[in-house]
Amino acid sequence: MNSAMTANIYNHFLTAYAPKSITRYDTHKKSELRSIYNSIVKLNKDSPWYLETKGRATQEYAISIKENARLLHNSIASLGGLDAGQTLAKKAAYSSDSDIASVSYVGSGREETPSPSFTLTVNSLAVSQENMGAFLPDEPVSLPADTYSFDVTINDLNYEFQFNINQGDTNKDIQERLIRLVNNADIGIHARLDEGNARSSIRLTSAATGVPDGKSEIFKISDTHTSKQSGTVDYFGLSFISRPPANSSLLINGEPRSTVSNTFTVGKVFEVEIKGVSEPDTSVSIGLKTDVESLTDNVNSLIGSYNTFISNTSVYRQNQSLSSKLIKEMNTIALHYQEEMKNMGISLQSDSTIAIDEDILQESASSSDGSFSFNTLKNFAGALMQKTTQVALDPMHYVNRTMVAYKNPRHNFATPYITSAYSGMMFSSYC
Question: Which of 46, 141, 197, 211 is deepest in the core (most CB within 10 A)?
């Protein structure tokens, strides 16, 4: 199995069973990977032997709780959680008009000089490439029955699509078939059917925006040198570019700028997403929030991520009994800090989620002893980090399994294949 196939399989499961969000906290140093490896070895060495878990629903559940633990871990890490002294110390950014541009702080927090605010004017957004095919009536295809193919070049990679045209197939039949082929391939192009006046056409839109370096188009379709019968590109009009890609046009502090994407960074501190075009002679102000505003934003993000984890795990309560064990363990962590957090307007609910009274939180954050009070939340965040690491290492701990035997304590040894049992869940339907 090659690496491309492995990536496609993994992405399929993350898309289907957990929200996919890759961050810089998913990359690790060699020392961190070595620590994870050593933890897995120790875990496997002390683990009893279990029967293989084959139920598809159970496998999907295990993958889901692992990925949700990863998301919670990364969320806390983004708030400074990788450094105990910096937990909840992440700065927050503001935008005076979030309908035109939203912004988030992506700096390290260790910049020698504070990043100044700046103004942004959006003259035009970066746009994707769009190909519009020919509008054809829903009548039998004029091409002879045969096996056809065409080639798509995107991101310097070539993909060949093969399909059959059978006797009696209509233009719309083949258009819908091609749309399924392109969308299922997931190569960065979205296909859809446009209809009007009893005719239909294929619209192809690139996921990427902007003009690639040294090129005028993001993707190209042809069947000049394809392996099967040619003719469908011209017949369906697949190569006609109805809207070429274009870069954005901006003014940052009055200076002209251009980007290939509508999401970009400024000074390695701000990540800006432009969403609309500015009105004439207007601009958006972007900068850093006050320390109190940043602190309350971080607390809301921490509690929101915790609640999301609880909600995603609660979905499995009826079918996976040990999901309640995981929720109870998370609830126990919150209960440990409950009394102190109440003074900050943070209270535990009956469904194990946490509610925030914004007024009390703001008052506590603004008080002279606010930094001391928030040590409780820092400790809470640290406890959650430890818990999510444990869940991500061994999600099978929260799965109903049949134990075969305990290992011989006098002749114990590491069994690396236990970890591969979890990994195999992602490939069981493909290999």
Answer: 141
